[in-house]
Design a protein that fits this description.
heterotrimer; A mainly alpha (about 350); B mainly alpha (about 300); C alpha/beta (about 300); A: about 350 residues; mainly alpha; Arp2/3 complex 21 kDa subunit ARPC3; 2 domains; two-stranded antiparallel ribbon; 13 helices; 2 strands; C: about 300 residues; alpha/beta; Rossmann fold; 4-stranded antiparallel beta sheet; 11 helices; about 25% strand
Chain lengths: ~350, ~300, ~300
């Protein structure tokens, strides 16, 4: 799943660095608070451990074998923020010292394997085994499923990152400059092998690994999963996530049914076409603000195929939700002072 | 001492031979061992370090790292086949000047080319990259297969070849430049050199400590594999293999945790305050500035030529 | 009871310790250490000598009782506060049993610089100390090497160097000769001897009795029940085979001479010779019908 250099254009890998930098800072600051002097050796050894996990060859039925990433196992054992740093460091060491995975693409790889994967897996684990009375068997099973979900989330994200390259960067004749395979090819190419085979390697390593550790060290401290007090928040988060995923349906349905823009939400062009003329103020003010994602997609993408428009719809939903959550958290911090101990990151 | 059992003597006749069952191969195990040993040999070098040879021997690793990253970024900005070819040639030239063993250059380049060719092969076809056909590959003859509509012919297009070639050249150039970086500096120097790229001190410390202990944990993993190999006749079935791998990973984790605790105590015992402090690294010399400037100029020239030609 | 007299460096009063949810590893240990003493803590594996060293270095704190350095009881609060905390860390050096855990920096030079830099010394002073320490231990050629590439003996010397660079007045050593070849071992003992000559207090934990005459003027013996049972000179302790057998530091040993089997309490301190007579404490049997050793 490591994306090499040359497959992603700077339009993708630079924003990935931009996204990861604050994530790394946040993780580092948060861990400094909780681990204090233990932070440095714990991070380093967790990263070395992740590297070693990636080297184990795990067999699959049918004679093939695969490698696990291990992010979810680290997240379950040490916490998702430790996993963010540990997996990022392991990926950096792989890229710099062994040429495994690109250097420019490092941040993108960290986004998929060090952020999306551990959190997706950890949340799944928490959902399935978060209650205090979970038996070890249930925890192991939940961890295994978390591993499967996590690695597939990462594979999906990788497929998306690769698949949007033809949309983003073309040369003069319209040919793709970077990864030439669009979403329709890249996403299944990444998702299917992980859904059908590699995902099970990750599930086995995560679930069986946790089971083994719980058996041999019964009081092994496992990263705290959200307690019952956070259930409502979890449900809300899950609901919002599902809604975000379903958002593109509105776009597709509207296009299928031939419906135009919702009443009253016309742009300048649509209004003048409908009403025959454009009010003077409308014309002056409509050019005042150029949205970064007009019509919930990149500029000029109105003519793109439905699949990519739907994808951008979903991306816009995610970005919008993220922006709102960030503002709300900031306000909460500001108003409540520095004492809140939020379990949900 | 309690007396030894009867059967514990050399040449004692064994019981009925175990039925011949087809056992899985031990090849994955040996492959994993080989990979572990390759990584370990990269990390642990003796005093006869062959990394500080050649033209780039005396340059500060920070300068080399900065130069390398600048060139890799430039490679990702190039679109033309000619400029990409130049970039690849430059990369190979740097590898040679850095006295990287030709076998290693060939291996790294070859692997990258092979893999990229495999991945890019479909991109040469007109079903992916439309354009004027150059070579017809198959004639499915239209019609449909389930939900998919088959094309009349499948052909390699000139545009497809150009796209594939571009990817081949670019990935190879990047991979070779990364090899120059990894092969002409010691691992620790490469990591501490990240300071020059603006990476915060705290992260650099984690990176260097990770590399420091990587060999220790890899040796533990190596021991596990060797122990298994020494007692195995063949594979033991997928389920048991998975269980073994999980147990092995669990064992390495226990080692990880105890080592982390021990290192923490060792750091506290030596007065660790939680804040990382390093010796001031030596100042850059003329050669270092030269290296970085040369790389920057080359990068700018390549990109300018690329844009000019495009 | 302290040995040579003089300033009391460590005072341990009825200290007990147990890891969380595990059996105790130290029970009611009390003793004092005077400045310049050479003290050895001996006991079988698991007797608690390593734990005791950790308590002396303020890495763990006793569940009951106290450990004091120069009159100051060691507690988390005391060690986090300046000036006592940093001064204690510089004054007392701990040579860990696992050199890999102790050498956590990228190169040998960084390792030696770690302590001084944490103390906040100036760069030129740090560099001077490093150079002197490398010379003193004859490891100058290892300056740029990575710890993973060093031999066991080299690692031990580098670990010791990383402590000496801070000019400690006390050294705590946990099985310092473990895993070392004879030459490295004797080199280490030589260095420790030199340090003792400078008045540095040495406290060594070991289960290797052959070291005692070289390492210590005073020996504390810990039993497998984690208690202090003997406090005396090396000569007295080594002669008390009864106690040594009871704490599992020596074994009752059977060996053959031809068709005769000797069995007696035995320690591999020196090669021994004896005649084939029936002496008190020795039993002779024929092969096949052994008796328990007589004491």
């Amino acid at each position: 799943m490591h994306i090499p250099d040359g497959y992603l254009g700077p339009q993708t890998y630079l924003p990935a660095w931009g996204v990861m930098a604050p994530v790394w800072s946040w993780a580092s600051a948060r861990l400094k608070r909780t681990l204090r002097r233990r932070q440095l050796p714990m991070m380093a050894l967790a990263a070395a451990f992740t590297f070693v996990v990636m080297m184990f060859n795990v067999p699959l039925p049918g004679g093939t074998s695969g490698h696990a990433v291990g992010s979810v196992l680290v997240a379950v054992l040490l916490g998702p923020w430790v996993a963010v740093v540990a997996v990022s460091v392991a990926l950096a060491v792989q890229a710099l010292l062994f040429g495994d995975g690109g250097i420019t693409a490092l941040a993108a790889n960290c986004l998929t394997m060090a952020v999306i994967m551990p959190f997706a897996g950890w949340w799944t684990y928490g959902l399935l085994a978060g209650r205090a009375g979970s038996t070890p068997r249930r925890r192991a099973l939940a961890a295994g499923i978390g591993g499967y979900v996590g690695v597939n989330a990462a594979a999906l994200a990788t497929g998306v990152l690769l698949g949007i390259q033809p949309l983003i960067a073309h040369d003069a004749s319209g040919r793709p400059l970077y990864c030439p395979f669009g979403l329709a090819v890249a996403v299944p190419a990444m998702a299917l092998p992980h859904l059908l085979a590699i995902g099970f390697v990750e599930a086995a390593v995560t679930g069986l690994g946790l089971a083994y550790l719980m058996r041999t060290e019964p009081d092994i401290p496992i990263a705290a999963t959200p307690g019952p007090g956070n259930r409502p928040l979890r449900r809300l988060a899950a609901t919002v996530a599902v809604l975000a995923l379903l958002a593109p349906l509105g776009l597709i349905a509207a296009a299928r049914l031939g419906a135009g823009t919702a009443w009253g939400e016309w742009s300048a062009g649509e209004l003048s076409a409908l009403a025959g003329r454009l009010p003077a103020g409308f014309g002056r003010l409509s050019s005042l603000w150029r949205a970064p994602l007009p019509d919930y997609g990149p500029p000029g993408a109105e003519a793109s195929p439905m699949a990519s428009q739907a994808l951008w719809y979903g991306v816009s939903a995610a970005l919008g939700i993220a922006a709102i959550v960030a503002v709300v958290l900031a306000l909460r911090r500001l108003l409540a002072g520095k004492d809140s101990d939020d379990a949900a990151p | 001492m309690t007396p030894l059992p009867e059967w514990l003597r050399p040449g004692f006749a064994p019981g009925a031979a175990a039925p011949r069952r087809r056992r899985g191969s031990l090849r994955p195990l040996r492959r994993a061992l080989a990979a572990l040993e390759a990584v370990l040999s990269m990390l642990v070098s003796d005093s006869r370090d062959d990394r500080r040879t050649g033209l780039l021997r005396n340059a500060d690793p920070r300068a080399k790292l900065l130069a390398g990253v600048v060139l890799i970024v430039a490679a990702t900005l190039l679109h033309g086949l000619a400029t990409l070819g130049l970039c690849l040639a430059l990369a190979v030239g740097l590898a040679a000047a850095g006295r990287v063993r030709p076998v290693r250059i060939a291996a790294v380049l070859g692997a990258s080319l092979a893999l990229t060719t495999l991945v890019m092969a479909p991109a040469t076809l007109d079903v992916v990259t439309p354009g004027a056909p150059v070579l017809t590959v198959a004639r499915p003859g239209g019609g449909s297969l389930g939900p998919f509509r088959l094309p009349a012919t499948v052909a390699v297009t000139g545009a497809g070849l150009a796209v594939a070639a571009r990817m081949l050249l670019r990935t190879s150039a990047c991979v070779t430049l990364a090899l120059v970086l990894a092969a002409t500096s010691r691992p620790q120097e490469l990591l501490t050199g990240l300071r020059a790229l603006g990476v915060p001190q705290a992260f650099v410390m984690v990176l260097t400590m990770t590399e420091r202990y990587l060999a220790v944990l890899l040796r533990a993993a190596q021991e596990l594999h060797l122990a298994r190999l020494a007692r195995s006749i063949g594979g033991i079935g997928v389920r048991r293999e998975e269980a073994w791998a999980a147990a092995g990973i669990g064992a390495v984790f226990r080692r990880t945790r105890t080592l982390a605790d021990a290192v923490t105590l060792a750091m506290i015992a030596r007065g660790f305050t939680g804040e990382v402090r390093l010796l001031r690294p030596p100042r850059w010399r003329r050669l270092d500035w030269l290296v970085v400037t040369a790389a920057a100029l080359a990068a700018v020239a390549l990109v300018a030529a690329d844009r000019g030609l495009a | 009871m302290s040995g040579t007299g003089g300033e009391t460096v460590f005072a341990v009063a009825d200290a007990s310790f147990a890891y969380p949810a595990q059996t105790p590893c130290l029970e009611g240990v009390s003793f004092a250490v005077a400045r310049g003493e050479r003290l050895a803590l001996v006991g079988a594996n698991g007797s608690g000598k390593s734990t005791l060293l950790h308590l002396l270095d303020g890495l763990y704190f006793p569940a009951s009782g106290s450990v004091s350095y120069l009159g100051q009881p060691l507690s988390e609060a005391a060690l986090e506060a300046a000036p006592f905390g940093p001064r204690f860390r510089a004054d007392v050096g701990f040579l860990f049993q696992n050199s890999d855990a102790q050498l956590f920096c990228p190169t040998v030079e960084d390792e030696l610089a770690f302590g001084p830099l944490q103390m906040g010394w100036r760069q030129d002073e740090v560099e001077r100390r490093i150079a002197d320490t490398l010379t003193m231990l004859e490891i100058g050629k290892l300056r740029d090497r990575a710890p993973a590439s060093l031999s066991a003996g080299e690692k031990k010397r580098v670990a010791l160097a990383s402590l000496l660079v801070l000019a400690p007045s006390v050294l705590l050593l946990d099985e310092p000769t473990g895993g070392l070849d004879p030459r490295s071992q004797s080199l280490l003992l030589e260095i420790l001897d030199g340090l003792h000559g400078r008045g540095i207090t040495l406290i060594t934990a070991t289960h290797d009795l052959t070291l005692l005459p070289h390492l210590a003027d005073r020996v504390l013996v810990l039993s497998e029940e984690h208690r202090l049972v003997v406090d005396g000179t090396p000569e007295n302790v080594l002669a008390d085979t009864g106690v040594l057998l009871a704490v599992n530091l020596i074994h009752a040993h059977a060996h053959r001479h031809g068709r005769l089997v000797h069995s007696h309490p035995h320690q591999h301190v020196v090669a021994h010779e004896h005649a084939h007579d029936d002496e008190p404490g020795h039993g002779h049997d024929r092969l096949g019908d052994r008796k328990e050793p007589e004491r």
